[in-house]
Amino acid sequence: MSETTRKFFDALERHGHERVLKKTNGTIRFDLEHDHEVDHWFVEICGGAVRVSQRNSDADAVIRADSAFFDRMVRGEAKPLPAWLRNEITSEGQFRFIVLLERLFAPPPGARHPRALARDPGGRR
Amino acid sequence: MKTDLIRILDGNIFVLSDGSGDMEAKPSVPCGFFSFDTRFLSVWRLTVNGERMSALARDDPSYFEVRFFLVPGAPTHYVDAKVSVIRERSVAGSFEEQLTVFNHSGEPADLIVRLDADSDFFPLIVVGQPHTPRGRLYKRVENGRLHFGYERDTFRRETVISTTEPAQVDERGLTYHIRIGPHGRWTTTLHVRGLVLRPDGQDVREHVYPGRHRRNRSRLQGDLQQWLGKAPQLTCDWEPLERTYRRCMVDLAALRFSPLTLPAEAMPAAGLPWNATLTGRDSIFTSLQALPFASDLAVATLRMLGIDQGAVLDDFRDEEPGKILREFRYGELVAFEERPQCPYYGAADTTPLYVILLDEYERWTGNAAVVREFEDEARAALHWIDEYGDIMGDGYVWYQRRNEKTGLENQCWKESGHAISFRDGSLPGLPRATCELQGYAYDAKIRGARLARQFWNDPAYADRLEREAAELKQRFNRDFWVADGEYYALALDGDGRQVDALSSNIGHLLWSGIVEESRAAKIAEHLLGPRLFCGWGVRSLAEGEGRYNPLGYHVGTVFPFDNAFIAWGLRRYGFTHEAGHIAEKIIDAADFFQGRLPEAFGGYDRKVVTGPVPYPAANSPQASATGAPLLLVRTLLGLEPYGDDLVVEPALPERFGRVELLDIPGRWGRVDAMGSVDQRTQQTAGR
Questions:
Q1: Residue A111 to chain B, least CA–CA distance (Å)
Q2: What gap in Å lies between CA B395 and CA A26, rounded to an integer?
Q3: Helix/strand/coil (H, E, C) string of B118-130?
Q4: Which residue out of B342, B345, B405, B420 would a mutagenesis test of the A interface target, given it has the greatest number of A Cβ atoms within 10 Å?
Q5: How large is the ipTM?
Q6: Which CATH number fits domain A3-123: 3.40.367.20, 3.30.1050.10, 1.10.287.380, 3.30.70.1450?
Q7: Would you say residue A124 has pLDDT above 80?
Q8: In chain A, which residues touch B (CB < 8 A)?
Q9: Taking CB atoms and an 8 Å cutoff, what residues of chain A touch B343?
Q10: pTM over 0.90, yes/no
Q11: Which of A45, B160, B559, B588 has the largest count of CB atoms under 10 Å?
C-alpha cells in the first residue's frame, strides 16, 4: 500500500476528531484496489472520535476506489462527490458517508482565503 | 422559452411537453423527461396513421398526472373524428404513459400507432443552450425494449422504454399495427425508466441504503392527501386567496424530494425546470415561509444543508469552512468538474439565513432538540460571517468569486450578471457588499444570541453577538444611507462607494430589523411609491434606473417571494396598511396564474397591462414563489409566536373580508386564527 494512504489513516486516527462533528457516528470501510489486490481500511467514528483498523468488516458504507486515485483524493487533488458521480469511486450503503469524505481529505492545493484575493490588487476588478 | 408547457413532477423528477403531450426538445423549448439532473427523453412524438395529434381537452387530476384528449390531424372548425386517443401519463419515480385508442365508427379500424422517441442526455444546466456532448450515444433494441444510452469514461446514463402490448421496436421508436373492432378500444402502457449506471451495469441508487421509498401513483396520492390533511385549513371571503392557498399547498407537496443523503425526509426542490434540485437559498426561504403550515420542511433543510456545510477552502467551488451551499447537481458537467455545482458554495446569503431559519423554527415549534442538534453548524455559520464573509475586514459581508471561470459574479439572490448596478447602470467593481446581506448578518447575530443564551448555555457568546449586531446596525445606517435619495444603497463596491440604485432590497432590510425606526417610513414610502410599485407588486429595480427593464430578470421584474418578505418586514415596523396592500396585489396577480405564481413576472405598470406578464424563462412551479402566499397569509393575520403562545393580530385590506386559518400547528399544539376587516374601514367604505 502507498505511503500516502498509510499516513492518511494514521493522521485520521490521531486528528480525525478535528474534522468531523461531535455528533458523527458510523463505520466506513475503504476497499482500495491495486495490483489485483484489495486493502481494507475500517474507520469507526463514535461521537466524533475516530478509530482506524484494517479489519474487513461490514460497515454503514463501503467505498471502493483505485488506490492511486484514493491518494489523489487524500492530497486534495480530486474530490469524492464528483468522483462518485462519474463512477471513479463506487459505494454501498449510506450516502451521507460519501459526503463526509469531503471533510476528511486535504483541501485542494493552492486554495485561497477570500481575504487574500481582496488584498491582492490583481484580484480586484 | 415557451411558458405554456404542460408540467408534471415528483420533486426533482419531471416531464415537460407541449399541449398534446409530445416532446420535441430545442434550446428554446426545454421539453423532456428529466431525472437526476439529466434529460432521459428529448423526443416523444405520437402519430396515428402518420398524422400528428391535436388536443381537444386536457385534465390535470394531480400534480404528477395529466390526461390529454386527442384526435389525429390538424384542428379544424369541424371535428368528426373516427378515431380519438386518451393519453394519460404520470411521473412517480419513473415515467409512465397509457395510450387508449378509440374507434368511433361502426367498421373495424386498421391503424398504425407510432411513438418516435430519442434522448440527448443533456445535463439540465445546459438544456437552455446549444451543447455538444463529449461522450458517446448508443441505441439498441433488446427483448422488445428500446435502450438509449450515453457513456463518457465510466459515466453512464441509460433510458429504457418498455411496452405492455407487443410493438415493432426500432432504434427510433415503437410501432403498433392494430385492428380495433367497431366502437372498440385498444390500450397499451409505456414505461420509461432513467437509469444512473455504474460500469457493472447496475443503478447506483440501488446501492444506496437505506434507500428511498419506492414511488408509485397510489403512494403519491395517499401521501398528498395526508399532507393536505395535516395542513391548516383556510377560508376567506375573497375566493382568489382560497384558490391560491390550495394551489400552493399542492405545489409545495409536488416540489418535495428526498436527497440520497436523507432518504426518509423531504425538502423542497427549488423549481421547474431550471432548478429542480437542492439549493440553499430557495430551500431556506421556502421553509421559512412554510413554517406555520408545514414545519418539517425546515428540519430536513437544516439537516441536509448542515451535512453539506463547507469544510475547507476550495476556490473552484467558492467554498469556505462553515458556508452553506448554493446548489447541488448530479449531472455530467459537475461529474467531470467542468462546472462546480457538486456542491457549489457561491452565495453570501445562505449562511446567515441558515441561522435565521434555525431560530425561527424553534420559535414556532418549541423543538429545542433541533437547536442543540445543529449547534455546531450554526456556530460555524456565525463564524463564517466574520471570518470569510467579511472579506474587507470592515465588519460587512462581501462576496468575490475565486472561481472566475464558472463561478457566479453576484452571490446574493439577485445573482444575474447585471443585477447590481449604479443609478446610471454602470457596474461596480469587486468585491461587493449588497445591503440585504448586512441585514441577514444582523438578524443572524441577534437570533444566534438568543440561541446561545437559551439553548447553548453560552451567555458570553450571546453578549458578543448582540454587541456585534448593534455595531453593525450603527455602521450600516451610516455607510449605506443614500442621503439625496433617502433610502439604503443597493450595495457598497470594493472602494467603499455606495452603489446607489433604488431597489427592492431595501424591503428585506425591514424584515431583518436593521433599519433605524426613524427611517422606516421613508423606506415604506419608496416601496409603495410609483418607481418601485408597479400595481401588482414591488419591482426588483426601480423604474428610472439605468438598468431598469420590466422584463429584466433581477432588474425590473416582480418576484413574489421578494414581495412576501417585504410585506413581512413592513408589518414588523408597523406598516400594516402597506403590508396588506402588497399582499392583496400579489394574490390578485396569483389569480391570473390560477394560483400558481411564477418565480417572476413583468414589472409593467398595472395601468398599461390587463394582467401580470410572466417572465419568459421563469421557473414554475418554483418553491419560494409557491411559499410567498403562505407568508402573506401569516403577515395578514399578524401571526407571531410569543413565548408558548401564538399571537394573532389581523390587519386585512377590505377585499379579504374575513379570513380564517384553522389548526395552525406549533408549540401551542393547534390553534385557530381569524381576522376580519377592521370595523372602521368598513364604515369608511360604506359612506
A1: 5
A2: 39
A3: ECCCCEHHHCCCC
A4: B342
A5: 0.95
A6: 3.30.1050.10
A7: no
A8: 19, 21-23, 76, 79, 81-82, 84-88, 90-96, 99, 102-103, 106-108, 110-115, 117-118, 123-125
A9: 81
A10: yes
A11: B559
